[in-house]
Amino acid sequence: MERTPSQGLLPRLPGHAWLILCGDAVSAVGAGLTLPFLLVYLHDVRGVELGPAGLVLSAIAIAGLAGAPVGGLLADLLGPRRPAAAGLVLAAAGTAGMIGVRSAWEGALWAALYGFGVALAEPCFQSLLSTSVRPARRSQVFAVRHALLNVGLSAGSLLAAFLVDLSSARTFVTIYVVDAGTFLTFAVLIAGTPGRGRAAPGHGARQDRGARARDSPTGGAGGGYRAILADRLLLRICVSVAVVFVCGYGQYYSAYPVFAIRSGGLDAAALQLTFLANTCTVVLTQLFVLRLVTGRRRTRAFALSAALMALAWLTVVGAAHLGGGPAAVAMFMTAMVLFAAGETLMAPSVPAIVNDLASDDNRGRYNGAYSFAQTLGYIVGPAVAGAMVGSGRGALLFLVLALTLGLVALQATRLDRLLAPAANVIGAGQADAADTDAEHAGHGA
């Protein structure tokens, strides 16, 4: 007897969806090779002072603010495949350019090109993935993407630990060449991906289907972002996402490690253990979590995601009061597991909602607005962290972050009344094998 798609742990997705997902994971391996060592490479190998080298890192995120909306607009005008491939080629060029960097301004130039290219491609990837499956399966494909991205980044970081020699510039050249190669490989895969880039037939996203005409004029494929941002529901979601990234993801690599070392008494090795706990939780549990929440509301998953991140930061504050030692390490690791659990709930919920709100004419711009909100959070978050932690108010910062995330959780539950019930369900619990076969036939044509 053939199993239904809901019975297995690994979702049954169309072949071209797996092609995009695997290409994305391969490019994540390249990012894992280079990004953790970028500051070290600029300072220790190329002699760039730490202050200017930090600005090079900022150039990646700032360029991303421009790349995301441009990528979304081009996806609507040209279809998502060509802009995605172009963004990957730009990212490859930016990565390769880092090989010859000798000054901060050169590094900032190539870093900006890299950041713009990655951000340009991101809303195109989301559009491609959302149209590679039926609406009921969007939560599945975005959850799988999150898991594979973490696998790729972890594999790249592990590989870099064996390849990189701080005394040898040649080893850094090697990893940047490999990184550029992963982007180009993914660009070739994207350019050759079959499919029409149009959504399969499915449900509407709003409770009142007429609300799309009143609250969210599409503006057509050739319009700009004014019409998109007139969608009050999308705007509420993007604001919530930006806050989650400011208070959650944006603190993960900024405030958290500094606070854990200065106030929590962790050394570098113990800090790495907590990050490992986070990554392993995501990789090992994402598909289990997806199965557990299948059939449940996406908005409730989003709310629980924010709540778990809030609980993680409260746990961090508690761990800091233990004064170091094994108990503190265990508590910090618990905090990172809680944070990872929040990640596994956000992945199958919010991107799927955004793509259900969109039509084929404006899907790229909807994803562009969503990507912009994420990038903005990554920029604002560290800025807030630096001001608070630097002044010795780290504990207060994490308490405020937790309170803010709790308010986001409350706001997320209020989205229930604005989304049609059929569009607010995770997974494909009522789909059957014949439906999956139809996806293969319809999108692989």
From TrEMBL:
- Main location per UniProt? membrane
* InterPro entries membership: MFS (IPR011701), MFS_dom (IPR020846), MFS_trans_sf (IPR036259), MFS_Transporters (IPR050171)
Does the record bear Membrane in its keywords? Answer: yes
Q: Domain Major facilitator superfamily (MFS) profile, which positions?
A: 16-418
Output compositional bias ranges, type Basic and acidic residues: 205-215
Provide an example Pfam family for this protein: MFS_1
Q: Which residues cross the membrane?
A: 21-43, 55-78, 111-130, 142-163, 169-191, 233-253, 273-294, 301-322, 328-347, 368-389, 395-412
Please give, as recorded in its UniProt entry, the membrane topology of this protein: Multi-pass membrane protein
Q: Which UniProt keywords apply?
A: Cell membrane, Membrane, Transmembrane, Transmembrane helix, Transport
Q: Name the chain's protein.
A: MFS transporter
Chain intervals for the UniProt region annotation (Disordered): 196-221
Q: Where in the cell is it found?
A: Cell membrane
**Coiled-coil residue windows:** none
